[in-house]
Amino acid sequence: MEPQHSKKLPTFPFLFPKAQSTVLPDPSLFFAPSLLSSPLPTNSFFQNFTLKAGDQPEYIHPYLIKSSLSSLSVSYPSRFHNPSFIYQVFNADLIISASNNTEPSSRKSHIISSYSDLSVTLDMPAANFRFFLVRGSPFLTCSIVNNTPVSISTIHAILSCDANNSLTKYTIKLNNNQTWFLYSSSPISLSQNGVSLLTSGGFTGIIRIAVLPDFDPQYQSILDRFSSCYPVSGDAVFTKPFCLEYKFQKKGWGDLLMLAHPLHLNMLSIDDSDVSVLEDFKYKSIDGDLVGVVGDSWVLKPHSVSVTWHSINGNREESYDEIISALSKDVKALNSTPITTNSSYFYGKLIARAARLALIAEEVSFPDVIPAIRKYLRETIEPWLDGTFNGNGFLYDGKWGGIVTKQGSLDSGADFGFGVYNDHHYHLGYFLYAIAVLVKIDPVWGRKYRPQAYSLMADFMNLGRRENSNYPRLRCFDLYKLHSWAGGLTEFADGRNQESTSEAVNAYYSAALMGLAYGDTHLVAIGSTLTAMEIQAAQTWWHIREEDTLYDNDFTRENRVVGVLWANKRDSGLWFAPPDWRECRLGIQLLPLSPISEVLFSEVGFVRQLVNWTLPALGREGVGEGWKGFVYSLEGIYDKESALQKIRNLNGYDDGNSLTNLLWWIHSRGKEEEEECSGGGKFCWFGHYCH
């Protein structure tokens, strides 16, 4: 599934014209010179380390990590919660620095010397430190050279600091009720100076620091047992469809202890992995309990998802007339209402909306309208691919490695921040959906524009790790959290964020459809696998069932969906709407409505809870008809007739939606729930024949 380099690749993949951006930050401030010739991550778990002063914290499970003035602060965060939001509180529980730091005020506090799917390595040249920050490690690991004196301080008071006989383990008790352990690869002599400071003589070797998450004695013995084996990096490898393998590179001796979040545990295939799960060894996290896993190779298998052009159960023929009547009007209106927006996001929604009409026409056996839709799609898509669109267009930024828009290259707020790498999978996902459908109905056009189509896809779905790639590896998708981040090159105290999971799902789904249209089985497999993981992550962290225990009770009681999910925060509000606009909160997790929505919202019990929670908000004055359409769509999953009447009475639709699409959705709802197939996947018929 990963790229095979034995085959000859095209020498010159298509690139859009070169951008002259005035808004992008300078990557050379924090990335090592050797990395600057390759495309760089823009939406990653360590992005704060690359922006402005590089001193905002990042959540490297289970710790919040902050780098400043050639020192590293580590926090085992407490959680603040109320009905509106949850966030983890950063306190500098321990601060590691060099006692003889030669440049404490140096602007360049750290250098990123390497990074991988699951790790980042921070070098602090002024302190002779190298930190291996590997996600899910219960230990913070630091390599120290040149016989450097080490200083460990805290914002708390140190109550005691006790060493073992060999001076290779210290137990540090703080007055905030925390106990930390410091392990060293060779003896280190720590002495307490004042209330909050420990200092050592010169030291060369490895130091590992871990908090004791529970006062059960077995926790300490587990940390002791695995203290000698440390990870230095970690890769995630797509080995076959619906399978992702973690491979951690380790040093030292013994077995490797890591931590898995709830979705890992849900997907972890014990039969295929040489790992053991320590179910009683847990760290607290905003993402749910992190559970110990022993082993340096994990195999994760999400539920399989069937990517389809059309609805899974199809429409009954008696519904065709109503759908065709709406379809004829919607297609006729395409020519009478030209696109006036030059926003890459809203433009993308409009062309994807038109593409939906072509697929619905196929599904209800009404091909008469398809030539008009094909003409419309060609006329609206080509200017963006040819560079002839008036007022905007795609450009290639060589500084970070990726596509930006003309507007976005001059204004960081234009196109929702597309020019600073915000929301790429959202915008480009809509373009890919429209392109995939056009390639399906016009293969000759598809062959002509294949290089441009693949360039749009590769911007956020490139798998390569090679220097001569034009795009970073999986720009938005987080291979530890197993979902995407929309936030790009903007510094945020709570790390990256994502609002709409459904638009993220749409991006990978659309890429898989493009693979179907081009007969590219590799693209179908990767797109489908990412779609499946994004769906399960949405169902784990964004969808909140009344009976769920993942989040704090007051937040769970008040919310059926998260508004914006941050690395370090859960917010009930949206970027564009307050928390009590529940119809927007539901809608932004559903749009665009398409066949993959059936899988994203396949849990009927939760859908009923979500709709019942949302319906009272529709009584508020000024609620948009477009948002009502999404609420009624979900209601149609369990009450088809009621929803159908409500949809017929709407007098407006979301700009990416249409009456045709709403009627198609409601009429394709089955009366019975689809039964699960083997392997846990829904709607995967072949599973019946794989026993």
Structural description of this entry:
The chain is of the alpha+beta class and 691 residues long. It has 2 domains: 39-300, Beta-galactosidase, Chain A, domain 5, CATH 2.70.98; 317-689, Glycosyltransferase. Helices cover 29% and strands 23% of the residues. The protein is built from 17 helices and 28 strands. The strands form 6 sheets. Strands 1, 2, 3, 6, 7, 8, 9, 10, 11, 12, 13, 14 and 15 form a 13-stranded antiparallel sheet that branches. Strands 4-5-28-27-26 form a 5-stranded antiparallel sheet, with no helix packed on it. Strands 16-17-21 form a 3-stranded antiparallel sheet. Strand 19 and strand 20 (290-294) form a beta hairpin. Helix 4 (344-363) runs antiparallel to helix 5 (370-386), helix 6 runs antiparallel to helix 8 (450-461) and helix 12 crosses helix 15 (625-635). The longest helix has 22 residues, at 521-542. The protein is globular and about 85 Å long. The two termini are 24 Å apart.
Which terms summarize this structure?
single chain, Beta-galactosidase, Chain A, domain 5, Glycosyltransferase, 2 domains, 17 helices
Backbone shape: globular
Structure annotation, total helices: 17
CATH architecture of the largest domain: Alpha/alpha barrel
Strand content: 15-25%
Radius of gyration: 26 Å
Unreliable stretches, pLDDT < 50, 5 or more residues? 672-680
The CA-CA distance between the termini, in Å, is 24 Å
Family: Belongs to the glycosyl hydrolase 81 family.
Domain Glycosyl hydrolase family 81 C-terminal: 317-666
Pfam families: Glyco_hydro81C (PF17652), Glyco_hydro_81 (PF03639)
Protein name: glucan endo-1,3-beta-D-glucosidase
